[in-house]
Every structure is written in structure tokens, then in C-alpha cells.
From TrEMBL:
Gene3D superfamilies the record matches: CheA-289, Domain 4, SH3 Domains
Domain of life: Bacteria
GO biological process, one term: chemotaxis
Stretches assigned to the CheW-like domain: 18-167
InterPro entries listed in its UniProt record: CheW, CheW-like_dom_sf, CheW-lke_dom
Recorded GO CC terms: cytosol
Organism per entry: Virgisporangium ochraceum
PROSITE patterns: CHEW (PS50851)
The name this protein goes by in its record: Chemotaxis protein CheW
Length: 183
């Protein structure tokens, strides 16, 4: 009887520790990111190109009066440019990182993907450690590999994929572009 109570406690703890992830496809592969970072999902829309930015920055969109940079995740991973199709989407994520002892910097960034699939729940038992090789992207971009239906979904560490250094470069490029447009 005690073991049933222990199993129930373990099961309840697993449910409490479960995290929801947004799954999407990119170049035929399945990826997921923690829903905590996702602000919204948009249909693909025309982008305004920003000169002098890295090639993985496809441009900016106007999101309620704010210029939000859009990253082509496929290019960021060193693969071919995302081909715009019927299901192509822009996932708006918010990245926050500490700068110094007390300052927290937040930035909204659009992530261009082939298709958004669904929100799933993974427990810590569902996620294996990231492999050191073989995923086709930098190992530090991966927080784990989630087991799902006899396959794996690459769980991204979006904070590393879109690092603070990259956010600062985006901000500088957008500021320079805004300044260049003024007389």
C-alpha cells in the first residue's frame, strides 16, 4: 500500500514538473521550444529587409508599432534558406538575459519556421541529454532530445540560439537603419 502512495506521489511530481513545448518543423526535422518563451504565432507576412545585417536575419515586421527582427532559423543553423509556403509561420519569442548584476534585457524576436505543429507536454523523463554530435546544429543550441512516437524531437535552448550578443547586434543594426532613414 505504501508503494502505491509513493508511485502516486512520483506521478504527481512528474505532472507538476512537466513543461509545455511548441513543436514545429524546419527542413523536414521536428523541433520544440519551451512555450514560456513564446509570445504569439503569426502567419508569414512580408518582411522589410534591413541592410548590413547577418544573412540569417530575413528582415523586420511591424508588430503593433514596434520593429521586430525575424530570424530564419534554418539559416541560423547553417542550412538552406526557408522556402516560404502555405504553412510558413513566424513564432514571436521573448528572450531575457541578465546584463550585469541587476539589469535584465528583454527582446522580442520573430523566428521563421516551415510550419508550427502543436503544443505538447514533456516530463523530465521524456527528455534525454543533448547529443554531442549528429543533430545538424551546434550542440549548445540543444537542451535535449524529447522521445515521441518512436522518434525524437530536438528541444532547443532558444536563449542560446538567439544569444545576448546576437540581440545586441540586432538592436545596433536596427538603430543604424532607423538613423540612416532620417534626414
Amino acid at each position: 500500500m505504501t508503494s502505491i502512495g509513493v508511485d502516486r506521489d512520483r506521478s504527481e511530481a512528474s505532472v507538476a514538473e512537466a513543461t509545455r513545448y511548441l513543436t514545429f518543423t524546419l527542413q523536414g526535422d521536428a523541433y520544440a521550444l519551451d512555450i514560456f518563451h513564446v509570445t504569439e504565432i503569426l502567419e508569414q507576412r512580408p518582411l522589410t529587409a534591413v541592410p548590413m545585417t547577418p544573412d540569417f536575419i530575413r528582415g523586420v515586421i511591424n508588430l503593433r508599432g514596434r520593429a521586430v527582427p525575424v530570424i530564419d532559423l534554418s539559416l541560423r543553423f547553417g542550412h538552406a534558406e526557408t522556402v516560404i509556403g502555405r504553412r510558413t509561420s513566424i513564432i514571436i519569442v521573448t528572450i531575457s538575459e541578465a546584463v550585469g548584476a541587476e539589469e535584465l534585457v528583454s527582446q522580442q524576436i520573430g523566428v521563421l519556421v516551415d510550419a508550427v505543429n502543436k503544443v505538447v507536454t514533456f516530463t523530465p523523463d521524456d527528455i534525454e541529454p543533448a547529443p554531442a554530435f549528429g543533430a545538424g546544429i551546434r550542440a549548445d543550441y540543444i537542451s535535449g532530445m524529447a522521445k515521441r512516437d518512436n522518434d525524437f524531437i530536438v528541444v532547443l535552448d532558444i536563449g542560446r540560439v538567439l544569444s545576448l550578443r546576437d540581440i545586441a547586434a540586432l538592436n545596433n543594426a536596427m538603430a543604424e537603419a532607423a538613423g540612416a532613414g532620417e534626414p
